[in-house]
């Protein structure tokens, strides 16, 4: 009986997860000693092959509950395959006005996803997305990691 239940759970899990398409790109940078120095830039290189496709871009910040700020400003530098550059500031809200966590808290870890508007990219080739922290402190602590993910937007959306 246990084998039947285990087999049923395995088949159910596989059928649910097989519907999800794998991300086009996904990478996570972990910060040594939970510290992000202002000079440390995170470089994510994404090879875009289909310019007719819309993509979702998601940055995920994970901190400990000892993080000292109510937000984190970052700069996202985009370099196209032909070398065109853009630099945009973004705020990741860490706490709500009442002081509660704005992200998903599990134990002493809090996760903050930042999803950008779906968009098409103008050129095929390798894009560089460089993330740098944009606060005045030369170093921020209690930062565990930052991930960058690119998904295809479903045609059904």
- For the CA atoms, what is the radius of gyration? 19 Å
Tally of helical runs: 1
- Percent range for helical residues? 10-25%
Mean of residue pLDDT values: 88
Number of domains: 1
CATH class: Mainly Beta
What CATH calls the topology is Jelly Rolls
Task: Give an overview in words.
With about 160 residues, this protein is mainly beta. The protein has one domain (about 25-150): Jelly Rolls. Helix content is about 10%, strand content about 50%. It is built from 1 helix and 11 strands. It has one helix spanning about 1-15, and strands at about 25-30, 35, 40-50, 55-65, 70-80, 85-95, 105, 110-115, 125-135, 140, 145-150. The protein has a 5-stranded antiparallel β-sheet with strand order 1-11-4-8-7, with no helix packed on it. Strands 3-9-5-6 form a 4-stranded antiparallel β-sheet, with no helix packed on it. The protein has a two-stranded antiparallel sheet with strand order 2-10. The longest helix is centred in the first third of the chain and has 16 residues, at about 1-15. The termini are far apart.
Short description:
The protein has one helix at 2-17, and strands at 25-30, 35-37, 42-48, 55-64, 71-79, 85-93, 104-106, 109-115, 125-133, 139-141, 143-152.
